[in-house]
Amino acid sequence: MTAPITASIPRGAHVEHTDLRAISFHHVRSAGLEMVDVEITGEIQDVTINGVDIGPLIEAELIRRMPDRAKMHPTTVDGFHEAWAILERLWAETEDRARTLRPDLLHERVRGEWSFIETLRHLNFASAAWVGRMVLGDPVPWHPLDLPWDEAPGWDGVPWDREARPSLDEVLVVRRERQAMVRDVVAGLTPEQLDETVTRLEPGWPQLEDFPLTQCLFIVVNEEWHHRLYAERDLDALVTTTKEN
């Protein structure tokens, strides 16, 4: 995460055709704001527009469209079982869909976002970090194709090959191993573990002390859910482009 910046935009400023990425707005106030043809994708909490907190409204609509979304905040052993089973099912459908495209398109970035292959590589990294390292205690759980997030500072010993172009099958070999790892941890989860914390201070990432074990699992669930939505969105765009050409 970058350092916070406190700034003000001049009164009457006009901003258009701007693509903001990896930006966090906290404790921001704006009066007289005009928003036309604006697309926002991200986490929304305590966002009030014209006196209305839109967060709960958006969440309710997203759950209406995708009922499984309501299962992605598990707090019980059975809840984690159900959430992970849903994610594996949904991702299997997305992977089948990706196989219908030309292999080179799976390396294509849509609007500067990760390609399908890069998305899978990042999810492999997330599972290794939060389950392999934090939950299972492996200080170096990495595979050479693992991919941290773009703004990560970089760490000694953690792979970060942005130029790699592995095939879908190559990435899925690692993917299956990581999915099985998470599945086994979730399957063996006990009610007592829901109250446990984990500490990992060895060189690398994450380095955390007394971090809730369930939060480690929730981070992986959250990553899997949202990145599949991004992947589906971009597959839509790739399919449309292919048809037009």
3D architecture notes:
The protein is built from 5 helices and 4 strands. The chain is mostly helical and 245 residues long. A hairpin with a 2-residue loop joins strand 1 and strand 2 (52-53). Helix 3 (116-133) runs antiparallel to helix 5 (213-244). The longest helix has 32 residues, at 213-244. The radius of gyration is 20 Å and the shape is globular. The mean pLDDT is 89.
Q: Give the N-to-C terminal Cα separation.
A: 39 Å
Q: Which consecutive residue ranges, at least 5 long each, have pLDDT under 50?
A: none
CATH superfamily: dinb family like domain
Q: Secondary-structure element order, as H and E?
A: EEHHHHEEH
Quick tags:
mainly alpha; 245 residues; two-stranded antiparallel sheet
Please provide a brief summary of the model:
The chain is mostly helical and 245 residues long. It has helices at 54-65, 77-98, 116-133, 168-187, 213-244; strands at residues 48-49, 52-53, 197-200, 208-212.
What topology does this entry show?
Blueprint (H helix, E strand, L loop, with lengths): L47 E2 L2 E2 H12 L11 H22 L17 H18 L34 H20 L9 E4 L7 E5 H32 L1
Antiparallel strand pairs: 1-2, 3-4
